[in-house]
Amino acid sequence: MLRTVVRAILCRELGAVRRSVEAYPDDASLWEERPGLPNVGGTLVLHIAGNLPHYVGAVLGGSGYRRDRDAEFARRGVARDELLAEIDEASRAVERGLTLLTDEALATQYPERIAGRTVTTGDYLVHLACHLAYHLGQLDYHRRVVSGDRRGVGAISPADLPVRDSAE
Q: Tens of pLDDT along 107-141?
């Protein structure tokens, strides 16, 4: 059950990341720096698109993906089409990785140590969903600041959560 909810939330938020990138007025605005904002939109997208394919796709799903975390924060000027393609690949990695995961595996130890600690797979998946939502918020604020557009992109809608039978 948790696996289904986490998959829905991660896919929902990745869809909002995609809509956010599409809502930027042009490629250059994704890379505009502003005082007080720690990351530009493009960097946030690259980080999200590296994080989930690693932790869900490779570690849990065995995809073979190789993460380059340094490049997530060093690359600049990546075109919107390339960023969208990376987000789409992250979405596929989440779908594949979580489809292969069993509900029983959620209570087991996550295959990698996280910050020097041992955590359960379920706990780490919840962390990844929170991490994604945090960066989605940063991306949304960056887009609004650089574009002047106050409209949202339909992020974190409860309507996208899975419907459960009340007997569960």
A: 999 999 999 999 999 999 999 999 999 999 999 99
CATH number attached to the domain at 2-156 = 1.20.120.450
- Backbone dihedral angles phi then psi of residue 119, each to the nearest 5 degrees: -130, 160
Whether 77 has a pLDDT exceeding 70, the answer reads: yes
Give the model confidence (pLDDT) of 153-168 as tens digits: 988 788 877 777 655 5
CB 5 within 8 A of CB 161: yes
Look up residue 4 and give its two tokens: 């289904």
Taking alpha carbons only, the member of 14, 161, 32, 132 closest to residue 84 is: 14
First CA to last CA distance, the chain: 10
State how far the Cα of 98 lies from the Cα of 6, in Å rounded to an integer.
9
